Amino acid sequence: MNYKEIKLSNTETYFIYQNKKVFKTFKTALKFHEPGLASVQDETGWYHIDITGKPVYVKRYKRTFGYYFKLAAVIDQKGNWFHIDKFGNRIYKEKYAWCGNYQENLCVVRDFDGNYFHINVKGKRIYNENYRYAGDFKDGYASVRLANGLYKHIDYQGEDLNGKLFLDLGVYHKSFATAKDERGWFHIDKLGNELYKERYTMVEPFYNSQALVETNKNKKIIISESGMIIFKT
Q: Strand locations in 85-123, DSSP E?
């Protein structure tokens, strides 16, 4: 049985394999993730099961989440967040007020003082700075919010990508990121340079060299990477 072939029911309470229900009915269930484990809840609490429906470990949690890069975020009965490996072993001794999911072998966490930062798969901080908010890494970079409320991009070492600050930032996708300044939303390259002069109330990442944006008159249009209008929806 391949975990990718095990589907979650519409009620998110049981699993289906080859059009038949497998395992028992749970209070809540999340879909299977690599390495073939799923997060479930029953009368004993939250835990993870394997592709035979059996618990991976004995411990029960207040909440468990899916595996990403073979590590899963969990909340213990005291409300502490941390990550476990595919055997249920805690991978670091630190505990947090919140944990994200590992992306590109790095994970954003929030400590009990409200600081955001990133840790590696050994639970070690990758830089010393604290941020008001931090997003997931994608394509090598993450968006972080500084104490002054402005945003910038950082790399895997926590170094500033291009020295430019914005009112808001999205992740990089195929070399370009969404950004916001005093005039509105637009797209930037990895040097932080604008791709075009126009500003919009909403922009999506580029998909096959074109992006959906919304004008200040609530009109949605499709633009190219140079900002040229391709299509009006």
A: 98-99, 106-110, 116-120
Long-range contacts of 25-31 (CB under 8 A, 24+ apart): 30/65, 30/66, 31/7, 31/66
Q: Mind giving me the DSSP string for 132-174? A: SEE---BTTBEEEE-TTS-EEEE-TTS-BSSS--BSEEEEEET
- The model carries a pTM of 0.92
Q: Quick check: helix, strand or coil at residue 5?
A: helix
Residue 141 CB neighbours (<10 A) = 21
Instruction: Name the token pair of 153.
Output: 């991009």
pLDDT above 90 for 43: yes
- Convert the pLDDT of each residue in 139-191 to its tens digit: 999 999 999 999 999 999 999 999 999 999 999 998 999 999 999 999 999 99
Distance from C-alpha of 148 to C-alpha of 47, rounded to nearest angstrom: 40
